Amino acid sequence: MLAYRIDRRSGVATYLQIVQQTKEALRLGLLEPGDKLPTAREVVEATAINPNTVLKAYRELEREGLVEARRGLGTFVRRTLGAAPADSPLRAELADWAARARRAGLERDDVAALFNAVLEQTYTRDET
């Protein structure tokens, strides 16, 4: 089952963190159509956030057509995203790179900034 991680210092709204993490799980194939999301109560117990925050995130995912709420049953995945399975060889290469960056003394935010800069450069170049 999906376990949400809430970073209160990230500056990203809590409900958006839930939306982003759900989409990430969909992209990685960790969630598939028919899978049930954790109940609001389960998320609240695991993260100590307001139940309305969880419901807001789930409503946003439903608005985007990714999940559907079934009264009395829970919230279920309707469709998946992307094509980057969690067991992709690229993931292993990226994990090796991240480990090297950490050994080189880079902090998590430094690695994220470097990776995002490379993504921006790579995908901007492809669009032109």
Automatic annotation (TrEMBL):
Tree of life domain: Bacteria
Record key words, sorted: DNA-binding, Transcription, Transcription regulation
Pfam families with a match to the protein in the record: GntR (PF00392)
Keyword DNA-binding tagged: yes
Domain HTH gntR-type as annotated: residue spans: 12-80
UniProt entry tagged with the keyword Transcription: yes
CDD domains to which the protein is assigned, alphabetical: WHTH_GntR (cd07377)
Matching PANTHER family: GNTR-FAMILY TRANSCRIPTIONAL REGULATOR, HTH-TYPE TRANSCRIPTIONAL REPRESSOR YTRA
Name the record gives this protein: GntR family transcriptional regulator
